[in-house]
Amino acid sequence: MAFNSDKTDEFTASTTTTTSTEECQTSAHKVSTPTATAPHHKKLDHSPSTTVEAEIHHHDDHVLPLSPSITSSSSQSSNPDPLSPLEYALAQTASITRTRTGRTSITSCASRPPDFEVTIDADDPENPKNWSLLYRSYVLFTISYSTWLIVLYSTSYTATLSPLIAEFHIPSRTLATLGLTTYLLGLAAGSVIVAPLSELYGRRPIYLICLAVFVLLIIPCGLARNLATLVGVRFAGAVFGAAMISNSPGTVVDVSRQEYLALAMSLWSIAPLNGPVTGPLIGGFVGDNLGWRWGNWLALILGGVAWLMVLGVKETYHPALVKAKVRKLRKETGDERYWCRFEETGISKGEVVREGLKRPFVLAVTEPILWFFNIWYVSKFNSQRIKGKKFRAGGDVCVLIIWEMCSNRISVIYGILYLCFVAYPIVFTQYRGWSSSMTGLAFLGIGVGTLISIFMEPVWRRVINASPKRDPETGRASPEATALVMSIGGILTPIGQLAFSWTCLPASIHPVAPIAFGILFGMGNTLSFIYGSNYLAGAYGMYAASALAGNAVMRSVFGAVLPLAGPAMYAAMTPRWAGTFLGLLEVLLIPIPLMFYKYGDRIRAKSKLIRQMRAEQLKNEKRQARRERVLNRVRGEEEEREKKEESGRAVDEKKKNDEPV
């Protein structure tokens, strides 16, 4: 049954309450797409509309007090997969960026003809999850390969520093390392910039445009005549290359069915997590045999192949697919009544971009959980008020500091990983006399450790699900359960680092020993990265993408800055003691996940954003349920009226037939 425009006009006039954009988007009732020739009905009277107005205007803004254990929206899922919070967050990108930046009438959605709402349901052939297994595998391989290329290009540069320094007469190795630093800073900037663009235009156009620009910017790098050109162009290229890193996980979620999502995420992550390892390996062989410029030409060739492969990837972003379906139906039928909930957001494109750019930094500055200043501020002024809330001395201070150290632990470990790309050439090339290509082989230990951690995902899943830490509302493992796996990673990382430091020199020690201990280091890094990110996603729920974006920025900054200190530190302290210093720093971080496992629920309870998110979720659920009841009542009254009219017409027809001729 369809509502005609006259009826919707009366319905619109009577409902004048405003709400946020997300609420508008979730207010309409999902129905099947109708045929072009919808029946025309008489106008609704004002009584149902008055009821609608009264129902919607009457809402309770009172927020129930929250317990210390705060659950995110992702915890409502029935999927027992411990990675589901991260995957859920990546799948909810559209709702993340459309926060309260503007106000729009709920009638822009609720008053439209419900029978003309266009959706793509779970069993729809147009749903990317229903594409053939072969094509979905192609999509998964393509985005994984493309992401691998972006990461590989960051570290392949470090394997060609010696010929680069000789050709450009660079006075120090630290100055030459700026090419790596600026590239990582470009990835940090790009991960924030490209995310809102994909929500405006879909994933495919962003992939094609950004990857094309990235590939084209490799050409000036290969032709560079000075370090300044190389450094500047690499930064610009990384900004565009970050599109693959930011959006690829979302594409994995788009095309993967729930029961295979963890497997798909693990398979996808093999390539990007091994990009930093294969970069020095490939760059070393190319640099030794063909020169440093051919490292860029090889990346150009690989990038061209990646762009051609992405050209064969169809759009997977759900809002973009639904809007395209609406445009197609309007064009084919000439009926403008077809609509979808993603069309009218009440927010301009500029506002969406501004919010997407601003939110990670706003969270980093204003949100206690991500507020770096809290460490100094709370420890110095135990009873100071932060945002009107007075923290108790002692316990509350401790849990906030623990959270801050834990949230930055990922960034520190990531920075130490990139410091290895400076340390390994010093150890194996300078002290052991290996060539750049052979030094690249030494990174295979870290790569093997990464693969082991990924393929042991079923083991980590059982560890998390066996944890006594449970969400009181759902009974599922709480986000704190992932801290157990983080603890394992936190122990393996310093063991690998310290063992490498004390076996790398003297050269009389067989090189297999330090390379083998790189396996433990790689395992620890991978576990810390994957499950640390998963904890942030589980804690922040629908705002996880912004929290992860802020964490990605900080992670890239650490990875960019620490290698600058590497050459001087290893020269002054020797590789053995410099590595020992880093290992002891990692030892200091071991208790953090364990303490986080114990106090994590209290830490999350301190977050104003998480409490606000939970309160808004409860209110939105009430509003949505209320609108569904109102719309169902309107439809029921309309159907009842139609039945009476049809019955009346049947009686009239019978009387007419019974009349004598």
TrEMBL record:
One GO CC term on file: plasma membrane
Chief localisation class: membrane
Transmembrane domains' residue ranges: 138-155, 175-194, 206-225, 231-248, 260-282, 294-313, 410-428, 440-460, 481-500, 512-531, 543-565, 577-597
Keywords: Membrane, Transmembrane, Transmembrane helix
An example Gene Ontology molecular-function term: transmembrane transporter activity
Composition skew (Basic and acidic residues), residue ranges: 1-10, 54-63
Domain of life: Eukaryota
The name this protein goes by in its record: MFS transporter
Organism: Cladorrhinum samala
